[in-house]
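Notebook, p. 212. Picked up where the previous page left off. The plan for this session was modest: take the two constructs that came back from the sequencing core last week, fold each one, and keep the raw output in the notebook itself so nobody has to go hunting through shared drives later. Recording the first one now, exactly as returned: residue sequence, then the structure token string.
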Amino acid sequence: MSLAKRVLKMLTYKEKTAAIREVENRLKTKSLIAKEFGIPLNTLSTCLKNKETILKRSREPENPEVDECIYKWF
């Protein structure tokens, strides 16, 4: 009996946002979306459960010019 190691797949916020958007569009099933991103269905369900937090982090800045100036300042 061999024990195979599972590969840990970490999704970026952009990937999580894309997965959430695909589920919201209802063009594909959740299991198909999970396979497409290479993650288990439980991970996709966790992303959907935390969708408000994920989408809040991936939003665009309210004032991109100020954001750009701060970036240059650093």
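Okay, moving on. Second construct, recorded in the same format:
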Amino acid sequence: MRSNRPATDPGSDDRRATLATLAERVQRVEAGGRPDLAPAPPDAIPFPCAASGASLAMGAVHEWFPDEPPDPRWTPALILLAHIARLASERRAAPAGALIVWIGRRCWAHPRALPSPVLRRRCLYVDPPDRAAALWAADLALRSSIVAAVIADASGLDMGASRRLQLAARDGGAIGLLARPASERAIHSAAATRWRVAPSPAPMGGAHPRWTVELLRRKGLRPAEQGPRSWTVERNHAQGLVVVPADLGDRSGCQTPTLTAPARRRA
């Protein structure tokens, strides 16, 4: 993804971010003080399941934090992010299949995290030399009409940069999955949602890795007064899907789907 950087008006992004913030305030007022009742966009990805009431909007960025002490060697939950990127790619039509862009070596998924050869062929890996280049690459990818998802190492992202990526995702329609270290949870952001991911113990003899995912914030919306804000999910190796475990489905409000082998599509 090498290209000459286009010349832009430095004040343009600030003006657009201000207008976006004002639009969100108007929407909250028009919702009659009950923004928690606003419906999810029709193309939103239910997460972790349809019954949870939580979702990940396309055309927006979502941040993911590990539940661990601050550590410069932190690692993102790439299996989980790869699952969401796969769902996004199924929602976005493109002549040769919508691309998934991985930005920053920390966020390069191992091939085993991508269950099908077709999906692996749609992946593009970017190794930016610094944070400024990473931000530029993420902005460019999110604005592309042939990109379904961008998974990026967003270490050091400030409020202005997060607004820039949120606007880029809104303009392009892709979903941005931004991996950030635990030490940056206190930094303000324009992301649509923020999540914390922690490893979860599997039952005795369990062969599938599990995580607990917690919705920390949903921008512009209040969480429902009742219902869970955290769920346990596991990866089914055979299908390459992340689902609510069968032994926890009823307690979480989610029903574990009957999994079938994904149909192979020509790239």
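Notes on construct two before I forget. Confidence is low (pLDDT under 50) at residues 28-37, 255-267.
Flagging for discussion at group meeting.
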